[in-house]
Design a protein that fits this description.
It contains 15 helices and 13 strands. It is 32% helix and 17% strand. It has 2 domains: 10-65 and 223-387, Alkaline Phosphatase, subunit A; 72-218, no CATH class. The protein is of the alpha+beta class and 396 residues long. It has helices at residues 17-20, 24-32, 49-56, 61-64, 69-75, 112-119, 175-192, 196-203, 226-230, 241-249, 268-278, 291-298, 301-314, 364-367, 380-387; strands at residues 34-39, 85-94, 100-102, 123-124, 127-133, 138-144, 211-219, 234-237, 253-254, 284-287, 325-327, 345-350, 373-376. Strands 2, 3, 4, 5, 6 and 7 form a 6-stranded antiparallel sheet that branches. A 4-stranded mixed sheet has the order 11-12-1-13. Strands 9-8-10 form a 3-stranded parallel sheet, with helices on both faces. Bound molecules: zinc ion (2 copies). One zinc ion binds at residues 3, 49, 293, 297, 333, 340.
Length: 396
């Protein structure tokens, strides 16, 4: 339940969203379960959804997360190889002096696949260029070759009416990669400025998408799959590409569910149903429901309360499901903060082997009194493996 953790809010009697919402099923799981609170990464560290999901899956985000690029790339289905350097990109409009006129190219909606094809597949100094469009003006660039580095500054100047930046190496070994990146950006302008898609946009008085501006460089590390790490076959059900990307890099199978949008209109019932049947095939299934986080970012307290209640109803079929179940969040997104915070999230684990405690409600304050106490996200998979008797002994 992405971002469902919260802080007290005067608009709802000084309670948190979970304390205020009426939740029959989650409270029921808390009563039957072992409860606690969890720091997704570590106390006081504000997680992103990507780094938090990495930690919950048992990866040290400080080791495997070098930037957002590789996770975006995996999210839109690019298969990365170790050593690939990936960037998030915007299609932007620049003038002939390379001054950015619109860094989202008018939020271009059509034709980006043709523009992407025009630059995809080229080679610069023996480095392979992979470029794929994402939603609207976004795209992903991957550099594939020997001895590349991600210690680079952004080309994207992050605001309009500024000339594009030259990417600068931030370490000595990054000079060649910076040169290649700068060549790519110039080349993208040369190819895209007269592309038929842009000639048409110019004719219709729309800002052209005549350059690609990379940012957020990250190198894809050696990452052991969930199967290698835990000998678990695993699957992921998520609406948003960032979470799908994390799970894909962890070698998990991505199951697409009709109506699972990652938005507030997402079909939670369908996700739960598909997750339940996926357990016939996989040992471990993770489901991400993004909507609570969106209400948190909007500061919409009544929307977040309603969403918590909607999720609670959708969890009803899980009462009949016999397996180890974990209910938690990747981080808190307090409606009063409108962003993520480091506040620990509630966690409930139910199953035959758990030590049932006295907690009766699924919320941040009640769960803190439970038998799990306060755990860290990176330990969660180990706890789950122990509770299902899959752990090996450390020592004699
Ligand atoms: Zn999140
Ligand atoms: Zn968020």
């Amino acid at each position: 339940m992405d971002g469902i953790g919260d802080r007290p809010d005067d608009r709802i009697e000084g309670k948190t969203v979970l304390q205020y919402a009426t939740m029959k099923n989650l409270d029921g799981f808390a009563k039957k379960g072992m409860n606690g609170i969890m720091d997704p990464i570590a106390p006081g560290i504000v997680p992103g959804s990507d780094t938090a999901h990495l930690a919950l899956l048992g990866y040290n985000p400080y080791e495997v997360y070098t930037g957002r690029g590789p996770f975006e790339a995996a999210g839109i289905g690019i298969k990365l190889k170790e050593g690939d350097v990936a960037f998030r990109c915007n299609f932007a409009a620049v003038d002939e002096k390379l001054v950015v006129k619109d860094r989202r190219a008018g939020r271009i909606k059509q034709g980006t696949n043709e523009l992407a094809k025009a630059v995809d597949g080229m080679k610069i100094d023996d480095v392979e260029i992979i470029f794929k469009e994402a939603v609207e003006h976004r795209g992903v660039l991957v550099l594939r070759g020997k001895a590349l580095s991600s210690n680079l500054s952004d080309v994207d100047p992050h605001s309009n009416n500024i000339r594009i930046h030259e990417s600068k190496p931030l370490s000595v070994d990054a000079k060649r990669t910076a040169d290649i990146l700068n060549k790519f950006v110039k080349e993208s302008y040369a190819i895209l400025k007269n592309h038929p898609v842009n000639i048409k946009r110019n004719r219709n008085n729309l800002p052209p998408a005549n350059i690609i501006l990379p940012r957020g460089a990250g190198i894809f590390p050696r990452m052991r799959s969930m199967d290698e790490k835990y000998r678990l076959s695993s699957a992921c059900i998520a609406g948003i590409s960032l979470v799908k990307g994390v799970c894909r890099l962890a070698g998990m199978n991505i199951i697409d569910v009709k109506g699972a949008t990652g938005g507030v209109d997402t079909n939670i019932d369908a996700k739960i149903k598909v997750a339940m049947s996926a357990l016939n095939k996989y040992d471990f299934v993770v489901v991400n429901i993004k909507a609570p986080d969106l209400f948190g970012h909007d500061g919409d307290v009544s929307g977040k309360v309603k969403m918590a209640e909607k999720i609670d109803k959708a969890l009803e079929p899980l009462k009949e499901l016999d397996c180890l179940k974990i209910f938690t969040a990747d981080h808190s997104t307090p409606v009063t903060v409108k962003n993520h915070s480091a506040d620990p999230v509630p966690i409930t684990i139910t199953g035959k082997s758990v030590r049932v405690d006295d907690v009766k409600n699924f919320d941040e304050i009640s769960c803190a009194k439970g038998a799990l106490c306060r755990i860290q996200g990176m330990g969660l998979m180990n706890i789950a493996r122990d509770l299902t008797n899959r752990s090996e002994k450390f020592g004699a």
